[in-house]
Amino acid sequence: MYWQKEMEVIGRRALEDLQLKKLKQTVSKACKHIPFYKEAFSKLNLKPKDITALKDIRKLPFTTREDLRLHYPFGMLAVGKDEVVRLHTSSGTTGKPKAIFFSKKDVDRAAELIARCLIMTGVKKDDVLQNMMTYGLFTGALVMHYGAEKVGVLVIPAGPGNTKRQISLMQDFHTTTLHITPSYALYLASVMTKEGLDPQKDFSLRRAYMGSEPYSEETRKKIEQFFHIDVYNSYGLSEMNGPGVAFECTEKNGMHLWEDNFIMEIIDPDTGEKVPDGKKGELVLTTLCREAMPIIRYRTRDITMIMPGRCRCGRTHRRISRIFGRTDDMFIVKGVNIFPQQIERVLMGIKAVAQNYQIVLESYDHMTVRVEISKELFDGKVDHLVNLQTEITGKLRGEILVKPKVELLEPGTLPVSEGKLTRVIDKRTL
Ligand code: AMP
Ligand code: ZN
Predict the structure, then answer these.
(1) Where are the alpha helices (DSSP H) in 327-381?
(2) Spacing, Cα 319 to ligand 2 middle (Å)
(3) Cα separation of 305 and 307, whole Å?
(4) Most CB atoms within 10 A, among 125, 215, 226, 421?
(5) Quick check: CB of 211 below 6 Å from ligand 1?
(6) Across all residues in the chain, what is the average pLDDT?
């Protein structure tokens, strides 16, 4: 099933022609209306007419998160303030937020992309979507909301939190589809277990869209098995509309990135050079349809790769793999580069491990991994715990090449989150 079949299965040649046409328009518009780009182009002695082929995109300057911050609040607008209808911001941890503006058409296009994603995963008008992302300045909930309404499903704007109420809503209105962060899904699972609920018998759930923070295939499996649903990976960022940038189809093997709306590049984050398909690097995105705020070569800091080959679903828009982490998530212990996702993957693959864990960077040579384990294991048998600790330590060392200290905890010990969760505590910078 398709929402915009012609565009979703468009031939590669036609898609690339369309991308070039839109890229030229985007570049001209940005140069004409956004002083930041005008200046960046003139520094490089570059004119919009120098873009004659798609590969010329590499001549263009990058835009960074810092650039958006420096031009907060209105500096990156390409249209008059009277033409924008919506503001979102993306927080980050320090300094000013980034302001993202949408024109009426931008709101509509973002909703169209979500509609493609929902139909691609088999949603029908009689589905009920419980939207557990944060409503407000964050794009996650609203953009999904508008897209789901476009398709015609019933949307429950639940927002995150108040887990018991979430459960009642799911039961009373026969929710079939969740939009949720992985950390909240894990928490929801632990509450359902505590309440003695059977996800299969007591609910009508069929699928969940999960994104907004990195998670591993093992976490997906854990959540799918617990709820008896299909979990589809959903990727987006506020700077590029929010959700609906890339989304999994029913093959669940990489996320189709809507290439008529974005040009993607994967680069080496250190050199800025292109890396070949199938190799990991930083995702760089250029908007092709944004009216209010076109952005050229945005450094997402997300690490992924372009998956070579065609998808069996027939869509021609190329896929990116699961996000491996962010360039700024990486930490170094004993000189080894480590991503939190590597640790998550190992932990979620171990049956005795419950939902929650925390990574504590004690010094530049030592780290502790604190892991909640399932209740049954706290049976008082010390040798069980010691064996498990040895198993986890060994598996982690195999993956990250550094031997961490492993602490086993009872479920419910570590902080939980309804939104994005900070799992890495860096004592070195406290
Ligand atoms: P925000 O702009 O606040 O919506 O945050 C966007 C960021 O969330 C992205 O740049 C990614 O780092 C992260 N993110 C969003 N979706 C996913 C996903 N499916 N997997 C991993 N990380 C994600
Ligand atoms: Zn597909």
Answers:
(1) 340-348
(2) 8
(3) 6
(4) 215
(5) yes
(6) 94
Q: Is the CB of 233 under 6 A from ligand 1?
A: yes
What span, in angstroms and rounded, lies between the C-alpha atoms of 374 and 410?
7
CB–CB of 97/90 below 8 Å?
yes
Quick check: CB of 247 below 6 Å from ligand 1? no
Residue nearest to atom 15 of ligand 1 (CA): 212
Q: Please check whether residue 142 is in contact with residue 135, taking contact to mean a CB–CB distance below 8 angstroms.
A: yes
Which of the listed residues 142, 223, 235 should we mutate to test ligand 1's pocket, taking the one with most ligand atoms within 8 A of CB?
Answer: 235
- Counting ligand 1 atoms within 8 A of each CB, the residue from 142, 245, 323 with the most, and so the one to mutate, is 323
Cα–Cα distance for residue pair 200/304, rounded to 1 Å: 33
CA distance 241 to 218: 28
2: DSSP letter: -
Listed as ranges, residues in the chain with pLDDT below 50 are 93
Closest CA to 422 of 358, 364, 369, 361: 358
Q: What pLDDT is stored for residue 91 in this prediction?
A: 67
pLDDT in tens, 118-134: 999 999 999 999 999 99
Which atom of ligand 1 approaches the CA of 322 most closely? 20
Q: Write the CB contacts of 350 (distance below 8 Å, at least 6 apart in sequence).
A: 391, 392, 395
pLDDT, residue 92, reads: 58
pLDDT at position 418 is 67
Rounded to whole angstroms, how far apart are CA atoms 288 and 27? 9
Q: Measure 325 CA to ligand 1 centroid, in angstroms.
A: 9
Ligand 1 centroid to 211 CA: how many Å? 7
Regarding the beta carbon of 237 and ligand 1, being less than 6 Å apart is answered yes
pLDDT at res. 248: 98
Q: 409 forms bridges with which residues in the sheet?
A: 372
Q: Whose CA is nearest to atom 5 of ligand 1?
A: 237
Which residues, in sequence order, are bridge partners of residue 287?
A: 262
Percent of all residues in the chain with a pLDDT value above 90, rounded to a whole number:
83
pLDDT confidence of residue 429? 72
Q: Tell me the chain's radius of gyration from C-alpha atoms.
A: 22
387 backbone dihedrals φ, ψ, rounded to 5°: -60, -45
Predicted TM-score (pTM) of the model is 0.90
246 forms beta bridges with 235, 257
Residue indicated by tokens 């009642």: 168
